[in-house]
Design a protein that fits this description.
Layout: E1 2-5, H1 10-13, E2 16-20, E3 27-30, E4 61-75, E5 81-91, E6 96-106, H2 108-119, H3 130-139, H4 159-177, H5 188-206, H6 208-211, H7 214-241, H8 243-250, H9 255-279, H10 282-297, H11 307-310, H12 314-332, H13 341-361, H14 368-398, H15 408-438
Helix pairs in contact: 2-10, 4-5, 4-10, 5-7, 5-13, 7-8, 7-9, 7-10, 7-14, 9-15, 12-13, 13-14, 14-15
Length: 447
């Protein structure tokens, strides 16, 4: 196969490529799903697509190529499964690399069961299309994400279609971010993977009345286990980039502070190693496949009582949920100025839960009110998050005291004092943002 595009990359900008196979007519194929298309990892390749406007005025040039072998295998049994294995090498002017793709076809339950069995021993995960991998190789960059950021509920969707779209979207985000969780590449991969995981757990909780079943509970438990691996890596990243960096700037010549930061970096490195082990292991592969199974097999349909709710328009469901969360949050923050640090932390968690839900359902009520409400909610969460980061930082540095050189406790005390000194400012900022949010007009109509 050879893939072509214009020199300016017109097809790539539209998520397309021109594919030329031996003994076949050239065809435009989609490498990335459109924004309006429901997307879930492991979905079959999309059919041929139409070229974008202006393509007929351009000259296609080779981008990358794949040369290899294809093996077709059919497994018999009660539910026959087809295996289509393509393996060989991707080549571009800049580089070349080995590549392989395995496509399973047949009854969805049987295919997912086989994939789960294979993933126990083999590093099998849904991968970018070969054409996208070739484009990335030619550009010397990572394949582009099929989905990124927060999911958006389709306006005309049912409750079931909405949760399917949300799970599929966030699984795609997690798959894209997981390879970026590598020490030395910066904290963004860990941060975005953690946010996607939290959004997914929040969505499962928000839709729980409609999708309650053993399979969803087991999937959420798996997500919780991964969250516990992500937490330490993210916490140390935040400390080193926040309070740790501020401390180093304040006393750059203090060797005891430098010693503290080296100890913190060692803890961060260990946390990244544990996280990388988890992401490279069978547990993460099973988690992804179990998420795909939820979207594909819809096990929640086994509960007859939930069927009517699953078919309900998602706008009704979303408005009722947002109304409940908003009133509960207002009650928790009724006298925010008198709340202690622990109560403010609970208020922050309430803001986070409401924000994830509001981001999810806001496209159902487009316009300025939704944008304004989300902006004010984000400011409260950010301000309360700064206060919480300082609390976490104090806990982290206190944990460094055991078994450390005699000089380190002095630096730990300095770091804790530094955090306490900034706490008053962050608290005032958070309370001011909260009062502005309380005055905001909600954007949803709960009837």
């Amino acid at each position: 196969m050879v893939w072509l595009d214009s020199a300016e990359g017109l097809l790539a900008r539209h998520g397309l490529v021109l594919e030329q196979r031996r003994r076949a007519e050239p065809a435009f194929r989609r490498t990335l799903p459109t924004a309006a298309t429901a997307c879930c990892p492991g979905q079959p390749a999309t059919p041929e697509a139409a070229p974008p406007e202006g393509w007929d005025q351009l000259t296609p040039v080779p981008l990358a190529a794949f040369t290899g072998r294809r093996s077709l295998i059919r497994l018999g049994g009660a539910a026959p499964i087809g295996l289509d294995l393509v393996h060989g090498r991707l080549r571009a002017v800049a580089d070349e690399e080995a590549a392989a793709r395995l496509t399973l076809s047949g009854d969805a339950a049987a295919v997912l069961a086989l994939a789960r069995t294979l993933a126990a021993d083999l590093a099998l995960l849904p991968a970018p299309a070969l054409a996208e991998a070739g484009r990335a190789l030619a550009r010397q960059e990572a394949p582009r994400p099929r989905r990124k950021g927060a999911p958006e509920v389709p306006p005309a969707a049912s409750v079931e279609a909405a949760i399917q779209a949300v799970i599929g979207h966030l699984l795609e985000v997690m798959l894209h971010q997981a390879p970026r969780c590598v020490l030395g590449t910066g904290p963004e991969g860990v941060h975005q993977l953690r946010v996607a995981l939290r959004r997914l757990r929040s969505a499962l909780k928000n839709f729980r009345p409609a999708i309650r079943c053993a399979e969803v509970d087991a999937f959420d438990k798996e997500l919780g286990l991964l969250a516990r691996r992500l937490g330490p890596a993210r916490d140390w990243d935040v400390f080193l980039g926040g309070l740790g960096a501020a401390l180093a700037a304040a006393v750059p010549a203090e060797k005891r502070c430098a010693q503290l930061l080296r100890a913190a970096e060692a803890r961060r490195d260990a946390a990244y190693a544990a996280l990388r082990e988890a992401l490279d292991g069978a547990g993460f592969r099973r988690l992804v496949l179990d998420g795909i199974a939820l979207v594909t097999l819809r096990p929640w349909r086994q509960a007859e009582a939930a069927v009517a709710l699953l078919d309900q328009p998602v706008a009704e469901f979303g408005a009722s949920l947002l109304d409940k969360r908003w009133h509960k949050l207002c009650e928790e923050g009724e006298d925010a100025a008198s709340l202690d640090a622990e109560a403010l932390h609970e208020l922050r968690l309430g803001c986070k839960r409401l924000r994830y839900a509001a981001e999810l359902f806001a496209p159902l009520w487009p316009g300025k009110p939704a944008r304004r409400f989300l902006q004010r909610l984000a400011r409260v969460q950010e301000a309360l998050g700064h206060a919480n980061d300082l609390t976490v930082a104090r806990s982290l540095v206190a944990g460094l005291a055991a078994g450390t050189p005699a000089a380190l406790p002095w630096a730990i005390g300095l770091a804790e004092g530094f955090a306490l000194g900034r706490a008053g400012e962050t608290r005032a900022e958070a309370l001011n943002a909260w009062e502005k949010l309380r005055d905001a007009k909600t954007f949803w109509d709960a009837g």
